[in-house]
Specification:
single chain; about 300 residues; alpha/beta; Rossmann fold; Alpha-Beta Plaits; four-stranded antiparallel β-sheet; 10 strands; flat; binds guanosine-5'-triphosphate; binds magnesium ion
C-alpha cells in the first residue's frame, strides 16, 4: 500500500503539471484527454490517495491495538530485525514450532506474526518483521520506519545476519541495521545478534568471521535456523539479556476466586512453585516488574500477602 501510495503521489504531480499545461492551452490534453478530462483524472488520483491513506491509518490503529493487548498480557516481547533474506522468518518458525501451547483466547488477541515462545521457562512474545532493503526509495523510508514502530516497543531485538555473505557485506549491513535501530530511538533496547546460516560455512570460516565481527555485533550467537543448530545457545543469550524480572512469593487464602487467579497466573507469568497448605495457596512467580506490580494488587484484593524478593 505504501508503494501504491508513492506511485500515486508521483502520478498526481504529473497530472497537476498536465492540468496546468492543458489550461494554458499549450498542450491539447493528457493521454488524448481534454482539459476537463484531465481535471477528472486529477481528482480521481486524489481520491485514490485519500482511500489508501485511510486504509493505512486503519492498519496503524490495529497495530497499536495489538501492541496494547500484548502489553496487557504482561509478557516481554522480542522483535526480529535484519536485512531481507537473512533468515528472520525461518528463525521465527523454528523458535515457535516447539513453543508452549497456550489457551486460544490468548492467541486471538495477537497478530499472525506474533507468537508466544518459551525461553527456558520464561514466556516471551516473538514478532517477525519485514526486512531491510538497500537503496530504499525515499518515499518508502517513512513507510519502513512505521513498520519499525514495533521494534521500539520491544524488550529485546533479535538481529538476524546472514553469516554466509562476504565479511564486508555483513559489516555494512550490520552497521546499517544498528544505525537504524539507533535512529528510531531504540538504542537502549538490548540486542542479540543471530549469526545465521552457519551450516553453509566451515568451522574455520565461522571462527574467522565471528572474530572479525565481535566488536560490531552485539551479543553474537552462531546459529542455523534452517537446521535448528544452536537454538539453545541463542535462547541462553536471550534469557541472559532479558534480566530485569522480579520474583514474588505470595500466600492467599483458598477460595474459588483464588483458584481462578492461580490458573490466570499460570498463563500470564512464570510460576515456579505452588503449594496448598492450611487453606492457603503459597507460591512463587516471576514477571516483568510492571506486571508483577499488577499481579500483587490482585493478590492484595484476594486478601493475600506478597513479598518481592529478587531481581534477575
Ligand atoms: N542454508 C541456510 N539457509 C537458510 C537458513 N536460514 C534461512 N535460510 C534460507 O534463507 C532464505 C531466506 O529466509 P527467510 O527466513 O525468508 O528470510 P527473512 O529474513 O525472513 O527475509 P524477508 O522476510 O524477506 O525479510 C530462505 O531461502 C531460507 O530457506 C540457514 O540457517 N541456513
Ligand atoms: Mg521474512
Amino acid at each position: 500500500m505504501q508503494i501504491e501510495l508513492a506511485r500515486l503521489r508521483y502520478e498526481l504531480r504529473r497530472a497537476k503539471e498536465k492540468v496546468r499545461l492543458a489550461k494554458m492551452g499549450e498542450q491539447p490534453g493528457f493521454m488524448g484527454l481534454g482539459a476537463y478530462e484531465v481535471d477528472v483524472y486529477y481528482e480521481t488520483i486524489k481520491r485514490q490517495i485519500q482511500t489508501i491513506r485511510r486504509k493505512l491509518q486503519k492498519i496503524r490503529e490495529k497495530r497499536k491495538l495489538h501492541r496494547a493487548r500484548r502489553h496487557e498480557l504482561g509478557f516481554s516481547s522480542i522483535s526480529l530485525a535484519g536485512y531481507t533474506n537473512a533468515g528472520k522468518s525461518s528463525l521465527f518458525n523454528v523458535l515457535t514450532r516447539e513453543s508452549v501451547p497456550v489457551d486460544n483466547a490468548l492467541f486471538t488477541t495477537l497478530s499472525t506474526t506474533t507468537r508466544l515462545i518459551d525461553v527456558f521457562g520464561r514466556k516471551v512474545l516473538l514478532t517477525d518483521t519485514v526486512g531491510f532493503i538497500d537503496r530504499l526509495p525515499l518515499t518508502l523510508i517513512e513507510a519502513f520506519h512505521s513498520t519499525l514502530e514495533e521494534t521500539i516497543f520491544s524488550d529485546l531485538i533479535l538481529l538476524v545476519v546472514d553469516l554466509s555473505e562476504p565479511l564486508e557485506e555483513i559489516e555494512r549491513k550490520l552497521s546499517c541495521c544498528l544505525d537504524t535501530i539507533y535512529k528510531i530511538g531504540a538504542s537502549s533496547i538490548p540486542i542479540v545478534t543471530a549469526l545465521n546460516k552457519m551450516d553453509l560455512l566451515s568451522k574455520e570460516e565461522i571462527h574467522r568471521k565471528v572474530e572479525a565481527l565481535k566488536d560490531l555485533a552485539p551479543n553474537p550467537v552462531v546459529v542455523s535456523a534452517l537446521y535448528g543448530i544452536n537454538l539453545e545457545g541463542l535462547k541462553h543469550e536471550i534469557r541472559r539479556q532479558l534480566k530485569d524480572y522480579v520474583k514474588v512469593s505470595f500466600s492467599i487464602p483458598i477460595s474459588e476466586e483464588t483458584m481462578s487467579f492461580i490458573s490466570w497466573l499460570h498463563n500470564r507469568t512464570n510460576v515456579y512453585a505452588i503449594k496448598y497448605e492450611n487453606e492457603k495457596v503459597n507460591g512463587i512467580f516471576e514477571a516483568v516488574p510492571w506486571f508483577a506490580d499488577k499481579v500483587c494488587s490482585k493478590i492484595k484484593n484476594l486478601g493475600g500477602i506478597f513479598d518481592q524478593f529478587s531481581k534477575g
